[in-house]
Design brief:
The structure holds two protein chains of two kinds. Chain A is α/β, with parallel strands linked by helices. Chain A has a single domain, classed as Rossmann fold (3-Layer(aba) Sandwich). Chain A contains ten helices and seven strands. A seven-stranded mixed sheet of chain A has the order 2-1-3-4-6-5-7, with helices on both faces. In chain A, α1 (23-37) crosses α8 (181-199) and α4 (94-100) packs across α5. Chain B has a seven-stranded mixed sheet, with helices on both faces. The longest helix of chain B is centred in the middle third of the chain and has 19 residues, at 219-237. The termini of chain B are far apart. By secondary structure, chain B is α/β, with parallel strands linked by helices. The relative contact order of chain B is 0.13. The chains are: A alpha/beta, B alpha/beta. The interface between A and B is medium-sized, with 32 and 38 residues. β2 of chain A pairs parallel with β9 (209-210) of chain B, so a sheet runs across the interface. The complex binds iron/sulfur cluster. Residues 18-19, 22, 24, 52, 122, 126-127, 213-216 of chain A line the site of iron/sulfur cluster.
Chain lengths: 247, 359
């Protein structure tokens, strides 16, 4: 009998403790598969953010560093500079990367650091209970925007991918989603491209992944996927924003 | 005897070169006066030594780069002055929690706030009592001349690796900017444990994690107890101090860094005038030479603590003396450097009127 589905070597046998329907488990899985397929598991060092995905180090079966909130791109910069032959990625949420860590991400990108960055956008702060994030969309209710985000007092949804694409040092930016099988496969291709670019020394690669947070969106996993498609994607259009895909 | 080879360098440059010689191969920093000679020197010197120099976008990024380089097992350093060190505190706490070695240089300036760039010793509390969040310590060295900027920098890297923790050099603008001849002691690497914790890819071994989050039941307390054991060991083994003319002294001046240097000339002058005055200078501020000071207090001496701040180390001296002797204080808060004549007068005024009656 042919085995068609098994756990990637890059994932530990630990069961995911993310909420049911959470996008983190899916994103962990596609990263792990890409790492396995590129045969780079023993060269990879991942950096976990502060947020729900801080526990990424419990699941990935390769070296992991936990960094202070928002600072993974700075730590990643150093890891890559002192070990250019290793493959370094950061895994960051929207609070980590798009709020407290905006300075670190912009300047790592601007130095054209040869890194792969995976940015999970679920439009709120998951771990702390669903507060407004810079990526929260207009009218979206969160625990700190109880009547919906209002641009007059809390600003606009931040399109980090488009912002980073304007920076000269950046070689690849793509926005993907994990709401369907088709999009998940696209997401995996984007993750693979980001790793391949690093292997080929092409510089800074950035993949923004729209990801459901059913718990804080107050929806069932099914409903969350629908909301992602109908409300989030129109604000954050999918596709390659800069560079070319590798495969 | 062969004459010792001497070099003439600014304190900050001597410190930077000593770091290179001690095997520092990663530096990240952000411009701030009065320490700019360090990044400027290393921007040229680090590439020659095949190391990495990065002028970072911020103080925060600098210390987080040091965190990353250290996780890869590379000897790493950052430098700044008060306001910048304040910004680095979060990750200094992370370095302590993750047990990562790092060397952090603070060439102090006057505070609070932006203050000014004259010499100051007002960052004693910040360096010695934590600064960041949580129950942690850094080893803190206080150099008082260019020779010590050289020697203590080398030692800082060794101690950071030996104990896997951040080490601070608490310097000041005067010694940093001053040119002075010193002997460039050759770096000799001590026996140090192998770095079997670094992240360099899990080839032929189990994956490793470096973290500071401990949420399992009892995990965090266990980690904290481990850190505290390390600090107990450091208190036992790493105390450094200098004592001048303490034996017969009726009055002991206690001072660190640049204040000790100025106090020393005042003390020598008072000796010439027949006053029994000595100087005790902590070289490590953590671990603090509390036992040595307690011993002096047992001999019923009187103390005067002299600092270029509003009174910080004096609290540690009082704790060590524990009421066994008088502890007086003279300080000038941030923004003023005292001169030897001024200290001469203050120390003389503190001298016990009838010899042998101090305490
Ligand atoms: S709170 Fe949201 S992001 Fe966090 S684990 Fe639950 S579903 Fe996932």
């Amino acid at each position: 009998m042919k085995k068609v589905f098994s756990r990637p070597k890059s994932l530990k046998p630990t069961p995911f403790r993310y909420c049911p329907g959470c996008g983190h488990s899916l994103v962990h899985r596609i990263i792990a598969e890409a790492v396995d397929q590129l045969k780079i598991r023993t060269r990879v060092i991942g950096i976990a953010p502060v947020g729900c995905a801080v526990f990424a180090y419990d699941y990935f079966n390769f070296d992991m560093l936990e960094a202070a909130h928002g600072r993974p791109p700075a730590a990643a910069t150093a890891l890559k500079r002192v070990m250019p032959e290793k493959i370094i990625f950061s895994y960051q949420g929207d609070g980590d990367l798009a709020a407290i860590g905006t300075s670190e991400i912009i300047h790592a990108a601007n130095r054209g650091e040869n890194l792969s960055v995976f940015f999970i956008n679920n439009a709120n702060y998951g771990m702390t209970g669903g507060q407004m994030a810079p990526t929260t969309i207009h009218g979206q209710r969160t625990t700190t925007t109880p009547s919906g985000r209002d641009a007059k007092t809390s600003g606009y949804p931040l399109r980090v991918s488009e912002l980073l694409a304007t920076i000269e040092g950046v070689s690849f930016v793509e926005r993907v989603s994990v709401d369907s099988y088709k999009n998940l496969m696209r997401a995996k291709r984007a993750v693979t491209t980001a790793f391949l670019n690093q292997i080929d020394c092409k510089g800074f690669s950035f993949v923004e992944i729209l990801s459901p947070c059913p718990t804080n969106w107050g929806m069932t996993p099914q409903k969350a996927l629908q909301w992602l498609r109908e409300a989030l994607i129109p604000v954050y259009p999918l596709g390659i924003i800069k560079g070319k895909k590798c495969n | 005897m062969a004459k010792k080879k001497m070099l003439l360098m600014k304190g900050n440059e001597a410190l930077a070169e000593a770091a290179i010689q001690a095997g520092c191969r990663f530096y990240a920093g952000y411009p701030i006066t009065p320490q700019n000679e360090i990044p400027e020197y290393l921007s040229k010197r680090m590439p020659e030594a095949k190391g990495v120099f990065i002028q970072a976008e911020s103080e925060i990024a600098s210390i987080n780069m040091v965190y990353g380089a250290s996780a890869a097992g590379v000897r790493a350093m950052t430098s700044s002055s008060g306001p910048g060190i304040s910004l680095k505190q979060e990750t200094i706490s992370f370095l302590a929690g993750a047990e990562l070695p790092a060397v952090i240089i603070n060439i102090q300036r006057g505070g609070p706030g932006l203050g000014n760039i004259t010499a100051s010793q007002a960052d004693y509390f910040q360096a010695v009592k934590g600064g960041g969040h949580g129950d942690y310590k850094c080893i803190v060295f206080s150099p008082f001349n260019v020779q010590e900027m050289w020697d203590l920098t080398m030692r800082a890297f060794d101690k950071a690796d030996a104990y896997r923790m951040p080490v601070i050099i608490l310097g000041d603008g005067v010694v940093g900017q001053m040119m002075e001849p010193f002997h460039p002691t050759k770096y000799v690497r001590p026996g140090l444990p192998e770095k079997d914790w670094i992240l360099d890819g899990c080839r032929g071994r189990e994956p490793r994690v470096i973290r500071t989050l401990f949420v399992g039941s009892g995990e965090l307390e266990k980690q904290n107890i481990l850190l505290q054991k390390k600090y107990v060991l450091i208190r036992k083994k790493e105390v450094m101090f200098d004592a001048y003319d303490i034996e017969d002294a009726e009055l002991v001046v206690v001072a660190f860094g640049i204040a000790a240097r100025i106090a020393l000339s005042a003390v020598k002058e008072l000796r010439r005038k027949g006053k029994k005055v000595g100087l005790f200078r902590p070289v490590t501020l953590f671990p603090f030479p509390e036992k040595q000071i307690a011993d002096i207090a047992d001999r019923k001496k009187r103390f005067i603590v002299v600092e270029m701040n509003a009174g910080q180390m004096v609290e540690d001296v009082r704790l060590a003396v524990n009421g066994k002797a008088d502890v007086l204080f003279y300080g000038r808060p941030g923004g003023a450097v005292f001169n030897p004549e001024e200290l001469y007068r203050k120390i003389k005024a503190a001298y016990p009127r009838v010899a042998g009656t101090a305490g």
